[in-house]
Amino acid sequence: MQTMEPELKHIMPPVLHRKTNVLLLVFLLLSAAGFAYSGDSLGKAHDVLLLPKPEKAPKHYIRSEAFFSRYGTGFRPAQGNVMILDQRLGEYSFQHYNVGFYAPLMTKAWFRKDSVSFANFHLLFTVNSNTAVPQFTGLDDHRLYKFGMGLRGIYNTGKNWIWFFDASPYSVGDRYNTRQTREGRYASILVASWSRSPEFCVRVGVTRTFLFGDRLHLPVVGIRWGRLDKMYISVLFPRQVTAAWVINKTFTVSAFSKPFGGLYRFSNSDSIYINQNVKVLEFGRWELTNGLRVDVNCGNSFSFFVAGGKSLNGRYSFSSPDFQNNSKPFARLGTFYVAKVDPALFLHFGISARFGKAKRIAGDRRLYEVIDMNGQFDPGDNNDGPGNTQIPAKFGEKEKLKYRDVSDLFDTNDLY
Amino acid sequence: MKTLKYITLLFVLLLSAEGFAQPKQKPSDRIDAMKVAFITKRLDLTSEEAEKFWPVYNDYQDKRDALREELLRAKRKVKNGDPNVLTDADYEAYLQAETTYQQKDADLQKEFLNRLRKVLPKRKVALLLIAEDDFKKELLKRMSKDDKPKPSGKGQD
A365 φ, ψ to 5°? Predict the structure, then answer.
């Protein structure tokens, strides 16, 4: 029994360990209860003569969205370039908890001089907080945090171009020694998307990213074939390769291959680096996750996804400030230890909730592109966002409508 | 980790609030998606026409909705208000709102049709007006039989 406990600890997400988290479960159940009664026939929806309740006119095309996701792999062997550290660290697994939020701050929409080209600009506020837990069998867990708030702008010219910019300043640190490990960082991305039809688009840009366990300045190059509301293949370096099929308004299935990683501050409390005066190390990690993902849209406001597959090409590294001065803007990290990690199965799941109402976007392919760009580039440079939850799926021929769907769309004159 | 837990708790709380605060969320996304399919088919829109048409059409619908909400506010006040409490000023406000609505709606439609003439052939613009009426009929037809309104007093409450 004593040997079982540590194993269970590794299998079960730590959020389920503590009794206080029963609260979460209670609130989840409450949420479920709330949703179960929405639009219930016990309401007044069947009274055709009842005037619909006036609502505030929506200002934005993108709804606010909050999301949470959890990623984890099992333990696997790692082979590094320093034997003594290989023995010290042991096997490796990685757990990741991610919470994000974005909300539109301002939306400007106007017709251009030709009076039919519809241009719009969207300014959004983003928040991201995540905890990365690299687990080594030879060390206590370090909880590496990252918290940031940023801004992003998307400009739809109303012609063939859409511009996207995201600035994500954030702080990173190790809970083990928050005071000495805290540091500010900045990730950003600028992308231009060009498309002449709903079935094809090309994206080019630049990004400053930590996704590969180092501070890199990379070009962004992407291409997409297929409709965002139906079926498409998207190749977007350095973010992901995706083949997605929007089955209906509820289900989307996709196969993906994407890098997943980051650069974190790691307390040297375990003396991984031999110089005891060095209090903080840089911990970089990345892996290529390949798998299948199922997105489920439960109505207008709530969705979740489950993804699973195999993580390949995993590696992690440690570097220290005195190993190499990397203060130059384009300098690469000098690592004193790099380990290759064996492939492992991973599980990734998440939930997201959307708030408020948005203006109509149905059929407007350029606004679909705007929303796709907002979804592809998640807040906080994690490559771990909620996905395209706000693009309406094509209406299926066999779908049935319920009376409550249409009850407030008719004037009494329509009934004659 | 604690902060993350609190954020998660907050997130779940927001979810709860969302679930309860909007018991009758209008599923307009589905209706809009159905409308796109219906009108595209009826007007036989080419992809070039569609990409110009939908932004213009959606903008018109949004502006019309906003106008309608203004009218509804005034209308509800009169319909649901206590006749003993409502004053002539309240009734006048509603009459004004109704007149203003009619005028603004006509202006909006004029502007919309002018825009449409630039992106669609006149035949298709005319067909759109007919298709909009037909779409409402299609909506009623599409409703599942089980979900049609029951006579008042039965099956309610």
Answer: -65, -30
